[in-house]
Amino acid sequence: MSPAESHRTKEISMDEIFLKRIKDYVLKNISSEEFSFESLSSEIAYSRSQINRKLKKITGKSLSVFVREIRLEEALRLLKANAGTASDIAYLTGFGSPAYFNKCFHNYFGITPGEVRKQDILKARPFTKVEKAKAFISTNAWKIISIISLVVIIGLVLVNVIIKIEKNSDISRLEKTFAVLPFENFSANENNSYLGNAIANEISVQLVNIKEFQVRSFTSCLNYKGSNKPSMPQIGFELNANFILEGTIELKDQEVTINVQLIQAENDKHLWAKEYDGEWSKIHKIRANIAIDVANEVEILLSQEEIDLIETRPTENLQAYEYYMRGNDFYSRSYEGRDWNLAERNYQKAIELDQDFALAYIKLAITHISIYWFGHDYSQDRLNKCKKAIDAAFDLDPDIAEGYLALGLYYYYGFYDYSKALKQFEIALGYDSDNSECIYYKGCVCRRMGEFRKSLELMENALSIDPRNHSIAINLAMNCLYYNEYNKALKYCDLSINLNPEFAPSYWLKAKVFLKWEGNITKARESLDEAIFALDLFEYSYLVELLFNLNIYEDHLVEALNLLDKSRFEVFSHPDFYYPKEMLYAKIYDIMDLDKSDYYYEQAQTLLENKILQNPNDPRYYISLGICYATMGYKNEAIETGYKALDLWPISKDPISGVVAIESLALIYTMVGESELALERLDYLLSNPGFLSAKLLQLDPQWKALWKLPEFQELISKHTVNY
Prior knowledge:
Elements: H1 3-28, H2 37-44, H3 48-59, H4 63-80, H5 86-92, H6 98-109, H7 113-116, H8 129-133, H9 135-172, E1 177-180, E2 184-185, H10 195-208, E3 214-215, H11 218-221, H12 232-239, E4 243-252, E5 255-264, E6 269-279, H13 283-297, H14 304-311, H15 318-331, H16 337-353, H17 358-373, H18 380-396, H19 401-415, H20 418-431, H21 436-448, H22 452-465, H23 470-482, H24 486-499, H25 504-518, H26 521-532, H27 541-553, H28 557-566, E7 571-574, E8 577-580, H29 581-591, H30 596-614, H31 619-631, H32 635-648, H33 657-671, H34 675-686, H35 694-697, H36 710-719
Parallel strand pairs: 1-3, 1-4, 2-4
Antiparallel strand pairs: 4-5, 5-6, 7-8
């Protein structure tokens, strides 16, 4: 034997061992609820993608197909051995439903499971004497057998009818509340890493079109990604969902395979499973079929209008659709500008490829207004881009429900026009009364209107519909903090952290709760320390700025300087503030009473004046510039600039950001020696909802000029409350 032949024989032998190990494990666990591709992967020490590649090379089949065929071969053996009914054997061999088993069996063998027993597998042979003696009886036996068979058949039909009635009754009694969990993505190409979330989200959107369905927000469902998720009954309880849809997706060489299974949450009962194969270009048809099949399985008769909505394609351009889904993935990752900029880029590419893609315009508009509101680009140009995208979407589809949500955000975020915003949100709710996003934004608008209790009620309603949404949880925490309900604020902060440990604002707000409530720097630091386990604290400028202030409160000025030296940020920003790095250096040197502070304040002043020339509508620039002027002795300029910020953030229009402008004006008055005017404004701030507290005033050395005044001590005594 040549070396080449020897190698080939060895390779064949190793391949056979590999296939046998898979087959043995599948057969051993064929009816076990614990069986999964992950457990198989662990057992044979290959990753899922490695198994797929190796199987494709040896057999030309994917893992899911190979395992299904093992199950079918075993089912055939059991049927021939009369091991049970076809339904029994379907479950014994790991199929989710008899209907799906029958279809797979027929596709593979060309006959149904029931036809297996009809095949004559006995060869004819001569009768023995005993058999001849029984011949007479045998000639009439067919009549007896026919009668018995008829009775058995009737019995089986009745049993099946009873089972089906019980099943239908079981399903029909349940409210049609659904949750679609993120799909496992088995695509090898890293460029397709977004697909698991994207396809699940798209199917969730399709199910919303069914009037009898209440579909839980995909934002909540995102928390149940991966293999470490809780049990189905627990997920159903947490999401308040009776039915859970989960699945897998694999895209390879423009061929897609999607496996879906429907589960009754309360008892983890697998109601239905199906595999959808096809060309990637047919993905719209596949996702529509999934939604329609789910409705059929839970006995919902769809109207033609619902079917038309489900089968509506957002775009005929497949590449545009891919960019759109990537945009959705980036937008949902965080509140950070880097993610939203990537979302914007992908939506733009989708629109370039299909200028009739209405949904892409809406998502682009929401991205623009989010970038504006959260301070990443607080410019008129950004507002104009948002409105242009909304108008383009409505020109294409005047009835696009998502457009009213986007228009509501445009009026709310862009102009503080609360009545117009609420009107648009109400129109959107007319399309879907359980739209938690619209209810949540109504709560946000009410908060800006000063209606804090109504805001709290709306947000709690939104959270009951979308119970795993960390954004709603953290905004509830903010409401509670404004109203000095500290224990509730901490509860919602912790909920937000548990729901999404990588959501940085939760840690920031939790630290703020301890500072306002108790002036407790230690607990505030511990809150930031929590973040270290889930994210890089130094990737978020507002977390670094807070840590900087904690060092100042404790008079750890060298540590504060070192923190600035190590930080990569040139600007520390948040929707409520904008501090150039030079301004923070100046703040430390000013506390140290060093001449360096003047140099850095001048540098910060120049930077801020240039920013105002570029964008005169951002109140945060005026707040910081006013503080620079005050510190440098430009009293009139400082006060004038402070009032300019208040004009842009008037308390009458915005009691949330308005208190930030009033606090900055109080600080400017303190710095220029107008203590009486400063104390008047501090008394107003401490008497109304906001972030400031008596404890905080005694921590921050910026207020040091007031500390020894009797009026200040009276103010602190008046507003110190023991909780």
